[in-house]
Each structure stands twice: as C-alpha cells, then as structure tokens.
Amino acid sequence: MNRTAAIVLTFVPLLSGLAADNRVRHSVAVSVSTPEVVVAPRSAGRRPLQLPDLEYQFQVTLDCAESFTAQFLSVAIADSRRTIEGEAIDSKAAPSELTIAVPERQLAPIVVSDFCIDVSGDDDARDPASALERSLTSLTIPAVLSAHASLVCSDGETQEIAYSAQPLDVVLVCQPPGSGE
Q: How far apart are CA 90 and CA 96, in angstroms?
C-alpha cells in the first residue's frame, strides 16, 4: 500500500468520528415582536430620524440534549441584556417570555427618505388627510438592530453553548395631522 492511501485510511475514520459528534445537541430560538414608533410629519427629503426607547418582547424556545440541563440563558440587544440563571430556566418547559428595553442612547439615527411628509404649506394640499394620502402612513425598517441569544447547557462535567441571532425590525407610523400625539 502506498503512503498516500495509508494516510487517507488513517484519517477517514477519524474524520467520520468528528462528523458524527458535530451534530446539533442544543438549541435556542427567539421570536420577537416588532415595536411601532409614531413619527410626526416632517419635511420632504432624506433626513435622519432618532428613534426613541424601543421595547422588544421575546418568546424564547430552548432545548438542551438529553443528559444536559440549562444553566444560563442570555439575550442581548446593543448594550441591553437579560440573563436568566439556574433553576429559573427549564429546558423542557414551554417557551419563555422576556422583555428587553433598549434606551434611545444605544440607538443610532436611521436615515429615512420622504416618509410622513408635512405638505401643509403645499398649495395643492386641500386638507391634511388628503396630504397624507400622498405619503406613506407606515414603513417597516428591517434589521435596525439584532438580538443575540446564548444558552449554556451542562451535564455536570461539561458545559456547551448554543447561539442564535435574530434581526430586529421597527415599524414607523406617521402621526395623523391634528392628533397632537
């Protein structure tokens, strides 16, 4: 047998053993609500918009492999984080609910073009309601932020981690004229 064949025959069982152990053992998944932000009518054009504090509500589903138990669950958005430890989480329970508030100071301004246009000075505007008909009344901004979830599972001797990431959207809603919100 030549040397190359001997090397291949030596590594194939080793690689197949690694591949068999590379299966998914633990999982963490999040589904999240999308907050709405009311925007006052603005002038036309491409303008930055500073978002206010945002609050995201999560449904978290987690699962540790058969002989493992959940030790820590952490969900983070920007610099805001929620961590649940020990007996407060149960990997065999129904999805957990948690809320994370993200302060305005952690949010970068977003640039929005021609949304919620104030046309009150426009000669063609008959009344405020018809002016809004010419402008979008709601707009979803995809992936403004992202949430990162991690689950630590332990069997008493070994700790293993499962990760998940979820893009977070925000819906902008144009404030109706005269609502004074």
A: 9
- Distance CA(25)–CA(8), nearest Å, equals 29
Q: How far apart are CA 136 and CA 139, in angstroms?
A: 7
What are the sequence ranges of the domains in the chain? 24-174
Token look-up 């633990």 returns: 26
CATH topology of domain 24-174: Immunoglobulin-like (2.60.40)
Amino acid, single-letter form, for residue 109: P
What residue type is assigned to position 61 of the chain? T
Other C-beta atoms closer than 10 Å to the C-beta of 39 total 17
Vertex 9 angle, CA 6 and 12, to 5°: 145
Give residues with Cβ within 8 angstroms of 112, minimum separation 6: 46, 47, 48, 49, 139, 141, 172
* 74 alpha carbon, distance to own chain's centre: 13
23's CB contacts (< 8 A; 6+ apart) are: none
Q: What is the spatial distance between Cα 146 and Cα 156, in angstroms, rounded to a whole number?
A: 32
Provide the 10 A C-beta neighbour count for residue 23.
Answer: 7
How do residues 9-57 score in pLDDT, each as one tens digit?
444 444 444 444 545 589 999 999 999 999 998 888 888 999 999 999 9
Surface-to-core class of residue 111, CB atoms within 10 Å of its CB (0-12 exposed, 13-18 middle, 19+ buried): exposed
